Amino acid sequence: MGVQLSIIIPIYNAEKYLYKNVLSILNQDVDIKLYEVILINDGSTDSSEKICIDLANRYSNIKYYYQKNSGVSVARNNGIKHSNGKYICFVDSDDYVSNNYVKTILDVSKNNKFCILDNFLVKNSKIRKEKKWLSKQFDSYIEKNKIMDWLIDNKFNAPWDKIYLKEIIDNNKISFMPGINMGEDLLFNIDYINYCEKVFISKETIYFHVINKNGLCNRKVNLEQFDEICNLYEELKKRIFNLQDENYFINKINIVFLRNIINYFSRLLKSGYSLKEIKGLCNKNDMIKSILMTKVVKLKDIIRIFLLNMFFKH
Q1: Residue 218: what pLDDT?
Q2: Which of 24, 31, 234, 242 would give a disulfide with 96, using CB separation of 3.0 to 4.6 Å?
């Protein structure tokens, strides 16, 4: 039958987690010939490379590649390039999986172009299921526009709870955008879902996502991140252009970014940046102008528009 599943792991300074991570993937109830593990070392400066080489020497289904530090998007793209499986999954280097991970993925993905699974969240050794809000949709098909709605709303943008068909990625040249460090997962998923009319939502819970206090989501804020927010905003607008519900999605994006920007400005203030510096970001900014024209109905969003107007005008 050959390799059915390629599991891609981007790695950067992950020595603390790497053995647990990879060994959990190797501890499966299926023939190792059915899946491959692709380790992409993104220029780590710790002992990650030594661990990767050790694992690759011990297990025949591990493929190891080194790249100069270029970011997680380039690492994932390189993993896709070197993959041979019919299906592709991504695993973060500080997470781990259950011993029925591969078997479940191969079962769930049959006859489906795109699958989303439930997952566990692990924080301070406490484990809970993440997608309880989706329970009514488990083991059913959801229309593309509804998934788009949830993606833009930041419900499940990460790639590690999804199963992708490699043929769709290759045939349509879908990739993670290098140089974008915020929302690259969201853009990839939106690009992919354009080629799927429906998405299968599975109740299977086989992935353990570890909340890491040193992770990207917890990095300190700075003024330069405003450019990343603007870039993501423009890329999102490109992707919803000419959709049947284009106006709805534009409004949706504006509301989501309104909330994120106010939160971002609040974090900047708490980090010691001045009002003058923050107001300087807003000056003549097209994204801010567009967001300020958004129709909002919730009281909190009305207050956010008022606050953003203050930053923009003064």
Answers
A1: 54
A2: 24
Place of tokens 């799927």: 196
Q: At residue 174, what are phi and psi to the nearest 5 degrees?
A: -85, 135
Please state, in angstroms and rounded to a whole number, the distance separating the CA atoms of residues 269 and 253: 24
CB atoms under 10 Å from CB of 27, counted, come to: 12
**Rounded to whole angstroms, how far apart are CA atoms 109 and 88?**
10
Region label for 194, one of left (φ > 0), alpha (ψ between -120 and 50) or beta (otherwise): alpha
* pTM exceeds 0.70: yes
Q: What amino acid is encoded at 80 in this protein?
A: I
The count of other CB atoms within 10 Å of the CB of residue 135 is 11
175-208 pLDDT tens trace: 999 888 789 999 999 999 999 989 999 999 999 9
Relative to beta strand 162-165, strand 87-90 is antiparallel
What is the reported pLDDT for 219? 64
What count of other Cβ atoms lies within 10 Å of the Cβ of residue 101? 26
For residues 68-81, b (16+ Cβ closer than 10 Å) or e, as one string?
eeebbbbbbbbbbe
Closest-CA residue to 63 (of 76, 50, 53)? 53
Region at 150 (left for phi over 0; alpha for psi -120 to 50; beta for the rest) = alpha
Closest CA to 77 of 62, 67, 87: 67
Rounded distance, CA 237 to CA 242, Å? Answer: 10
Report the amino acid identity of residue 173: K
Give Cβ neighbours of residue 115 (< 8 Å, ≥ 6 apart): 105, 108, 109, 162, 163, 199, 200, 201, 202
pLDDT at position 216 is 47
Counted residue by residue, the chain has a size of: 314
